[in-house]
Amino acid sequence: MMALLVRDLRLSVRAGGGALIGILFFMTVVAVIPFGVGPDLNLLARIGPAILWIGALLAALLGLDRLFQAEREDGSLDLLLMQETPLIVTVFVKCLAHWLSSGLPLALAAPLLGLFMNMDATAIGAAMLTLVVGTPAITFIGAVGAAVAVSLPRGGLLVSILVLPLAIPVLIFGVSASYAAVEDPAPFLPPFLILIAITLFFAVIGPLAAAAALRNASD
């Protein structure tokens, strides 16, 4: 499994810099917001956490279709299905590698982009923390969509359509926790714990459903 993790990380770097593309898209989404809402710094600071989360969510959708597509094209997917290691574990490791190469860089880029939105240090820290906790859930949800569309020649759009509605709870509680960190009456811990629970839930359900979809696609 460690060899598979290292292999997927290397492939993600060689496949055109998926992390860099995601960060550039993330930066583009955040950078155009001030042009749309105007130069009101107080307004930008208020909507900053929501914009960071929306940008990160859209950027995270970019590379989900490639989660199993390369293995499908070169035939190694059949080897993964026939190996002794449970397919659920294999899918989990591939999701972890995808998050390390695509999701985690988005969370690490959030502090810099938070400065563009005139967010203070507390809001930036809360947004980054919620992104670190919440983006794995998007990856695990995306694994199901990627497995369903793995046999389709152009399934990228379908993956986004399947994943986006399921990722709405992650977005809601991620933004709620970020706002709660800077709004005095609102407690930060309850929405943050719910966000952790959602990630843990999809960490179990996502690989299980993706493994079933992969087996069904191979039949």
Provide a descriptive summary of the structure in words.
The protein has 219 residues and is mostly helical. It has one domain. 83% of the residues lie in helices and 0% in strands. It contains 9 helices and no strands. The longest helix has 30 residues. The two termini are 25 Å apart. The relative contact order is 0.15. The mean pLDDT is 84.
Task: Provide a compact summary of the structure.
The protein contains 9 helices and no strands. Helix content is 83%, strand content 0%. Helix 2 runs parallel beside helix 6 (87-116) and helix 7 (121-148) runs antiparallel to helix 8 (156-182).
- Percent of residues in β-strands: under 5%
Tally of helical segments: 9
Biggest sheet, in brief?
A: none
Order of helices and strands: HHHHHHHHH
Distance, first to last CA: 25 Å
Specify the overall morphology: elongated
Please tally the β strands and state the result. Answer: 0
**Mean pLDDT over all positions:** 84
**Total discrete domains:** 1
> From the helix content, strand content and strand pairing, which structural class follows?
mainly alpha
Radius of gyration: 18 Å
Percent of residues in helices: over 70%
User: What ranges have pLDDT less than 50 throughout 5 or more consecutive residues?
Assistant: none
